[in-house]
Write a structure and sequence with these properties.
Elements lengths: L1 H22 L6 H5 L2 H23 L2 H7 L2 H13 L6 H22 L1
Helix pairs in contact: 1-3, 1-5, 5-6
């Protein structure tokens, strides 16, 4: 269950990156919106993420699953650094480390 949710966060992060790409070419025109492949693909991945989360929430504990979703922030930050050349300042890295440590502690506590 935990691995499925962690994998779903990769879908969420990929969706957000694709939506960012799509918004770089956004115009308020229905045809342009529907034919904006990165934007539509981003929404499709976000839909897949939602379905996986509904399945996970049906079987798992909300108090364990919901914090794992925060891994999306880690993936988005990493992808943004490599794709969009966003900055990685020390405080941002500390925050990412805290998120990863928290998720690891939650996963470890679930096994005990």
């Amino acid at each position: 269950m935990i691995l499925m949710v962690a994998g779903a966060t990769l879908l969420s992060a990929s969706a957000q990156i694709l939506m960012k790409f799509g918004m770089n070419h956004f115009t308020m025109n229905l045809v342009a919106i529907v034919t904006n492949v990165p934007l539509v693909a981003g929404y499709a991945l976000y839909g897949m993420f939602t379905v996986l989360m509904v399945l996970a929430l049906r079987e798992g504990e909300l108090s364990l699953i919901y914090p794992i979703i925060s891994l999306s922030y880690v993936w988005v930050t990493a992808l943004s650094y490599f794709i969009f050349h966003d900055s990685l300042k020390p405080l941002k890295l500390v925050g990412i480390a805290a998120i990863m440590a928290g998720v690891a502690l939650l996963g470890r506590g679930d096994r005990q």
